[in-house]
Amino acid sequence: MTDFDATLDAIGLLCPLPVLKARKRLEPLPEGGVLRILADDPAAIIDVPHFCAEAGHGFLGMEESGAHQIYLIQKGTA
How far apart are CA 76 and CA 73, in angstroms? Predict the structure, then answer.
């Protein structure tokens, strides 16, 4: 996966908390900064890409890592 500027550990959090915390964690990042999210909520597979599309951020992808997933979001201009 790509380099990242910050990490959000959302393991154990259920919808909508991973996305709400991601929104807050993206705020201080510069435009183009990359946030790595660790999550195990099954709904995150749908919620994270949807959040990116709605908020103007780039969804760089997801990969499985054992019992959780790793998502990468690139901060947009929104």
Answer: 9
